[in-house]
Amino acid sequence: MKAQNDDALLTPAEVAKLFRVDPKTVTRWAKAGKLTSIRTLGGHRRYRAAEVKSFLEGGGPPPSGS
Predict the structure, then answer these.
(1) What is the pLDDT of residues 13-45, one digit of tens each?
(2) Is the pLDDT confidence value at 56 over 70?
(3) pTM, whole model, 2 decimals?
(4) Which of 4, 35, 44, 61 is the most buried (most CB within 10 A)?
(5) Is the Cβ–Cβ distance between 45 and 39 less than 8 Å?
(6) SS3 for the chain, per residue?
(7) In the β-sheet with 37-39, what is the strand arrangement from edge to edge?
(8) How far is CA 44 from the centre of its chain?
(9) Which domains does the chain have, with CATH numbers?
């Protein structure tokens, strides 16, 4: 995996691999406001490595569902 610094951006697939979930789950977390995403000029989502790391250390975003 790439070295992560505070300014690094991760793709949904990279985040999904860290949490061992499907990339669509990561996108749902972003849409629900559990994870902040940045949009590229092409419309793709990217996630801040520092925020993802804090989620990992805290056990990840709470599971969605009702």
Answers:
(1) 999 999 999 999 999 999 999 999 999 999 999
(2) yes
(3) 0.76
(4) 35
(5) yes
(6) CCCCCCCCEECHHHHHHHHCCCHHHHHHHHHCCCCCEEECCCCCEEEEHHHHHHHHHCCCCCCCCC
(7) 9-10, 45-48, 37-39
(8) 12
(9) 11-57 (1.10.1660.10)
